[in-house]
Amino acid sequence: MSGQVLVEAADAPMEKHAHAVFDLDGDASDAAPMQMRFVDQRTFGGLYLDELTVAHGREVPSTIAHIAPDPLEDAFDAEAVARLMRRKDVAVKRMLLDQGVVSGIGNIYADEALWRSGVHGRRLGSKVTKRQLVDLLTAAQDVMREALAQGGTSFDALYVNVNGASGYFDRSLDAYGQQGKPCRRCGTLIVREQFMNRSSHLCPRCQRRR
Fold first, then answer.
1. pLDDT digits over 82-99, tens only?
2. Model's pTM, two decimal places?
3. How far is CA 147 from its chain centroid?
4. What is the distance of C-alpha 122 from the center of its chain?
5. Which regions of 30-177 does DSSP assign to beta strands (E)?
6. Where does the chain hold its CATH 1.10.8.50 domain(s)?
């Protein structure tokens, strides 16, 4: 996500990069006026008023109906996603980053899930067993839950919680950014490879490319 949604007193100083401001009704007549502000220094975010529709078994705004559920949604079905991935001659990591297959994972958590499940990201979905793919998606769920519990993975001052604090899941990473360090599972040095104009981090022993 780009930007932050803040709820502040209406008389609080306006943030430099506030792009949308909504006045909120208070619960009591004597309550201080409050505002909801959308602040985005990078200007990648946006706000839309949209109609709701049903897609992938849940109700969502129509403009994002093409986006698949993320691993932590109730509508997420790991078995169904694994079957879809098995039908494709596409690199597994590419599919993890494809919002039409599964949303919300991102490069860091993809590397972590691949490491945990012992799958090389360049392997084709059609060459990986359904069980392995389910294990991979389950690993992605575990990684995301653990990251949320630790406030996320922050490498930038723009990505903080509502109190301005950074997450610290980066201290628990096993693959991403660990190149040159021994794998916590087998001791082999983690390597970094180029993939889709970004970096992939993996253990060449635990995640063999067959």
1. 999 999 999 999 999 999
2. 0.77
3. 10
4. 20
5. 34-39, 52-55, 58-61
6. 71-202
